[in-house]
Write a structure and sequence with these properties.
With about 400 residues, the protein is mainly α. Helices cover about 70% and strands about 0% of the residues. The chain has one domain. It is globular and about 75 Å long. The chain contains 15 helices and no strands.
Length: about 400
């Protein structure tokens, strides 16, 4: 099997993982904003996410000769390594729950802020756990100041969301006020928010960030957010962050067996075998939950059926691509973490920098917001960049022997 041995190779894996993991959320957000049901999207995503893990295992996991201490992927499938397999599968379950939660959080909180908060929580909790599991191979005097910067980014992210929500309410209130003025000065019927919502979206070319744009978006999207409490989105986001903070430590235990659960003479799971089991459990929990959500949807999403899902080809290609991007991104993250330490590999949690780019360019997030919101957003991203740089600087090197 192929093993990443150099610090430079590990960092390269992290950089590629960062780009992939920062892009796939934008694809799922795009589909939700176009009205595709989240249950349909996540079922498609889950299929190719598992496919990516299988491709990685059958290529990188089978390269080179197998040995007693470093067996290839297929050879490990028949070994007595179930304690490690269970750790890997536990990591897959919490990751699946986290990804599923963020699909709803993106609608309520926005792509940029959701990714910053969840990634920061992942680092604050997960990186701290990985530091001790990795036998402190990362530089603590560098690592923990970076963790502190991520914690500050969480606070700034919550402030950005609150400020942006207030801006949107002010825009909608202003639209209602202007509509009332028009109705008092003309004989034409008033243009209410309800009229706009029932209008043909193709006939309305609202600019990003305007009240008209917000109303059109609410009409098209599959997850309705108007009238919902701000706390709903933040609660989902924090739950997802806690789930994300646990998957990397679980994967760490699966590949390095720090708690000595394997019998003597049984080799540790390779990163490829662990990732395969990890992805299998991620797939199973996603399929079970989303099939249930087809018939019993959450957050007032529309009901659907398995037959309707099979026949829904609108946007399916984007959902399948998102699964591949996420799968290969996770695989590269784990390959880098096995070489440089999983605490340092959590630097891929800089993915919100990529997601924010897509959020602003594709979805017009924060367009025409207040100066306060812009100041908080810039502060959040700057703090995030500082935190990521510090985290990468803490990279160590694991002894592969």
């Amino acid at each position: 099997m192929y093993v990443v041995e150099s610090k430079g190779g590990a960092i390269a894996c992290m950089v590629f993982a960062l780009m992939l993991l920062g892009t796939w959320p934008a694809l799922l957000t795009l589909l939700e904003r176009r009205g595709r049901l989240p249950q349909h999207t996540y079922l498609d995503y889950s299929i190719t996410n598992l496919l990516a893990a299988l491709i990685i295992a059958l290529t990188f996991g089978e390269i080179g000769n197998s040995s007693l201490h470093h067996p290839n992927f297929i050879q490990q499938l028949s070994q007595d390594n179930w304690p490690s397999v269970m750790f890997a599968m536990a990591g897959g379950i919490v990751l699946s729950l986290g990804n599923l939660s963020t699909q709803y959080a993106w609608a309520f909180v926005g792509l940029s802020v959701t990714e910053v908060i969840t990634s920061s929580i992942t680092v604050v909790i997960g990186t701290t756990l990985n530091y001790f599991l990795d036998d402190k191979i990362n530089k603590a005097e560098i690592l923990f100041p970076g963790v502190a910067c991520f914690l500050i980014a969480v606070c700034l992210g919550s402030a950005v969301h609150s400020s942006n929500t207030a801006d949107n309410k002010a825009k909608l209130k202003s639209l209602s006020h202007n509509t009332n003025q028009e109705s008092n000065t003309t004989d034409a019927p008033p243009r209410s928010s309800k009229d706009l919502e029932n209008a043909d979206s193709s006939s309305l070319k609202a600019k990003f960030g305007t009240a008209d744009f917000l109303i059109q978006l609410e009409k098209r999207r599959s997850i309705k957010v108007f009238g919902k409490s701000t706390l709903i989105g933040l609660s989902i986001t924090f739950f997802a962050g806690i789930c994300f903070s646990l998957f990397s430590p679980a994967f760490n235990l699966a590949t390095n067996d720090q708690w000595h659960t394997l019998n003597n003479g049984v080799p540790h799971l390779s990163v490829y075998t662990a990732f395969f089991y990890f992805s299998v459990s991620c797939f199973i929990i996603a399929i079970v939950l989303n099939v249930v959500f087809l018939y019993r949807p959450i957050l007032n999403s529309p009901k659907t059926t398995l037959k309707a899902y099979v026949n829904d080809w609108n946007g399916r290609g984007w959902a399948l691509l998102a699964g591949l991007l996420c799968g290969f991104g996770n695989g590269l993250q784990f390959m880098g973490g096995q070489a440089a330490g999983y605490a340092a590999a959590d630097a891929v949690q800089a993915l919100p920098l990529v997601s924010t780019f897509w959020g602003v360019v594709l979805f017009g997030e924060y367009r025409r917001s207040s100066k306060k919101t812009y100041a908080l957003l810039i502060s959040m991203l700057l703090m995030f960049m500082v935190a990521v740089g510090i985290l990468m600087a803490s990279s160590g090197h694991r002894n592969q022997s």
